[in-house]
Write a structure and sequence with these properties.
6-stranded antiparallel beta barrel; mainly beta
Length: 107
């Protein structure tokens, strides 16, 4: 039998960890493609219900040649696509395999 010496404790983030600059989660998106010429992030119906506000970001989490990080959304083109201020892909180029995924976030 194993006895716990003290109850579980909730531990806050260490003081040296900065707060998330985009704490508001809007929605998860996946099955996305990237077109460098746009610069456009696109996926069928992935942006339905999203209402763009200045300062919103796409938090890239993974996919082919994706550099994880926050990328400013400059415009919602349609329910299928948004434009980004910078490319989340390195090396630069188009990604049309539906592998890109992440989150839409707001400050």
């Amino acid at each position: 039998m194993v006895a716990l010496r003290r109850p579980f404790e909730l531990i806050a983030s260490p003081p040296d960890v900065p707060p998330d600059p985009f704490p508001v989660f809007l929605q998860a998106v996946d099955n996305l493609d990237w077109e460098e010429a746009g610069p456009e992030l696109a996926g069928p119906g992935e942006f339905t219900g999203y209402v763009h506000q200045a300062g919103d970001v796409f938090r890239a989490q993974g996919g082919t040649n994706i550099v994880p990080g926050d990328y400013e959304i400059t415009e919602k083109v349609s329910d299928d696509s948004v434009l980004l201020a910078a490319s989340p892909v390195d090396p630069p180029g188009d990604v049309f395999d539906g592998s890109i995924f992440g989150e839409l976030r707001r400050a």
